Amino acid sequence: MSWIREGELTIIERFCANIIKAGPMPKHVAFIMDGNRRYAQKCHVERQQGHSQGFDKLAQTLRWCLNLGIREVTVYAFSIENFKRSKEEVDGLMDLARQKFSRLLEEQENLKKHGVCIRVLGDLPLLPVDIQELIAQAVLATRNYNKCFLNVCFAYTSRHEISNAVREMAWGVEQGLLEPRHPIHAWCFSQSCGQNIPFGTCVKLSFSSR
Amino acid sequence: MSGAGGLAWRALHALLRALLCLQRALLACLRGRAAAAAATSCALLAPAARALGFREARAAWRRRGPARGAAARGRQRWRADGRALRKLPVHVGLVVTEEEPSYADMASLVVWCMAVGISYVSVYDHNGIFKRNNARLMDEILKQQQELLGLDCSKYSVEFANHDKTGQVLNCQSALKVLSSEDEKADIVKAAQNFCQLVAQQQRTHSDLDVNMLDNLLSSTNGFPDPDLVLKFGPVDSTLGFLPWHIRLTEIISLPSHLNISYEDFFSALHHYAACEQRWGK
């Protein structure tokens, strides 16, 4: 399954999209991919199947975002906290990541056509080396595209990202690029965290209320 | 917006707002069913009730629980309520996203938190109204503490721990902080500047900084644990900058408004928290 599902909208979907686009639209939407295991339980399938179908739905959602002209999408795919899960589940998720990032590299024409720049945020050294290599290839291959941006948060927690941003600023001071007396604004953090536009909307894809 | 698309959007928007209002009215009606008999009898006695100021007293009771004379019975009930929950949050954040905060209603919420046995309470609105008028909030809390918990308040003392004071949260049943949007973001920025200063003085290297070190450098919640629960009041689907570093694992429950909130609504949220399954990423 491709990252961005191909196919045009139905007539009704196009009609609804036109109505929605006539009003104020968020420029950046974030999706929290939650509820795959509960969905699998509800449908009486394996957890791995739940995760795989979660990705399929994400692909469809990314197509909707493209159609609605939402230029930046962030996906919270895997938290550092998720490493606490069973080895079997974590290995299954890493296999899914391998499959999907490999697929991404096969779809370069599609990504070029839509001008999608892929960014992956997180503590990547925590991931298996082969996945790090696939991610690096995907990010490098799309770094010059700028029509829309897909940020994938993988091995991510907000605390690690904030700490990383402070570490980068400290590195700048060490290298003599920044003076410590230069005012550090909250804006610097959003730039260090690699996002163009702050979130307009954050959508949690699950039944739970948090 | 112009043309047929804009007109259709406006119509859809108006329809959605109407449906939302209807949903809220239905929910309010369902909640009011339990008090429907009392409400009916009150309506019949309305003229006399108005003369006696009964409606105001009823609104006060609904907000504040047992009346002044039943404070002792109320105290026992609240403590028992807290103990009956499967889990009670240690630190609750009360986040108001509405434009006009109410000191009386916020004071009620703080006193109820104390009464059920919650040890740490943070009050937050992103405009900083409560923080700027800290003294007024404090007075209202002390007044309600006396009113709702009786004259013997010593068991329920609350310590007002401003973020620039430390070591004042010991030996108290409950501790309270009043925060605004400047606190946390400014705190992270300040911690970053302090660390960069240490690096410039070659007392540290950039690779020394990790999550634990930055956590120790932050001071906005000195002495307070991370919030277990945030009760968010108002229509805005955002915590509007409330302790972004500290709420990574916090359960967030949204309530329509803090205005005229009842003890039943507050306790219902605590009950919801007690029943929720927290997997911490597992």
From TrEMBL, chain A:
Q: What is this protein called?
A: Alkyl transferase
Family note: Belongs to the UPP synthase family.
Q: Which Pfam families does its entry note?
A: Prenyltransf
Which Gene Ontology terms of cellular component type are present? dehydrodolichyl diphosphate synthase complex; endoplasmic reticulum
Q: Name one GO molecular function term.
A: ditrans,polycis-polyprenyl diphosphate synthase [(2E,6E)-farnesyl diphosphate specific] activity
EC number, UniProt record: 2.5.1.-
Q: Does the keyword Repeat apply?
A: no
**What InterPro entries does the record tag this protein with?**
UPP_synth-like, UPP_synth-like_sf
What biological-process GO terms show up in the record? polyprenol biosynthetic process
Q: Which NCBIfam families match?
A: uppS (TIGR00055)
Q: Which reaction does it catalyse?
A: n isopentenyl diphosphate + (2E,6E)-farnesyl diphosphate = a di-trans,poly-cis-polyprenyl diphosphate + n diphosphate
What enzyme class is recorded for this protein?
A: transferase
List the keywords (alphabetical). Transferase
Query: Which top-level group of life is the source organism from?
Result: Eukaryota
From TrEMBL, chain B:
- Give the catalysed reaction(s), semicolon-separated: n isopentenyl diphosphate + (2E,6E)-farnesyl diphosphate = a di-trans,poly-cis-polyprenyl diphosphate + n diphosphate
Which top EC class is named for this enzyme in its record? transferase
Main location (coarse class): endoplasmic reticulum
Localization, UniProt: Endoplasmic reticulum membrane
Q: Which GO terms describe its cellular component?
A: dehydrodolichyl diphosphate synthase complex; endoplasmic reticulum membrane
Task: List UniProt keywords, sorted A-Z.
Answer: Angiogenesis, Developmental protein, Differentiation, Endoplasmic reticulum, Glycoprotein, Lipid metabolism, Magnesium, Membrane, Receptor, Signal, Transferase, Transmembrane, Transmembrane helix
One of its GO biological process terms is: regulation of intracellular cholesterol transport
Gene Ontology terms, MF aspect: ditrans,polycis-polyprenyl diphosphate synthase [(2E,6E)-farnesyl diphosphate specific] activity
Kindly list the cofactors needed: Mg(2+)
**Does Signal count among this protein's keywords?**
yes
Q: How does it sit in the membrane?
A: Multi-pass membrane protein
Entry EC number(s): 2.5.1.87
The positions making up the signal sequence are 1-27
InterPro entries from the xrefs?
A: Nus1/NgBR, UPP_synth-like, UPP_synth-like_sf
UniProt keyword Signal present: yes
Classification via Gene3D superfamilies: Decaprenyl diphosphate synthase-like
According to its UniProt record, in which pathway does this protein act? Protein modification; protein glycosylation; Lipid metabolism
Q: What does this protein do?
A: With DHDDS, forms the dehydrodolichyl diphosphate synthase (DDS) complex, an essential component of the dolichol monophosphate (Dol-P) biosynthetic machinery. Both subunits contribute to enzymatic activity, i.e. condensation of multiple copies of isopentenyl pyrophosphate (IPP) to farnesyl pyrophosphate (FPP) to produce dehydrodolichyl diphosphate (Dedol-PP), a precursor of dolichol phosphate which is utilized as a sugar carrier in protein glycosylation in the endoplasmic reticulum (ER). Synthesizes long-chain polyprenols, mostly of C95 and C100 chain length.
Family stated for the protein in its record:
Belongs to the UPP synthase family.
Q: How does it assemble?
A: The active dehydrodolichyl diphosphate synthase complex is a heterotetramer composed of a dimer of heterodimer of DHDDS and NUS1. Interacts with NPC2.
Can you name this protein? Dehydrodolichyl diphosphate synthase complex subunit NUS1
Q: Which species?
A: Taeniopygia guttata (Zebra finch)
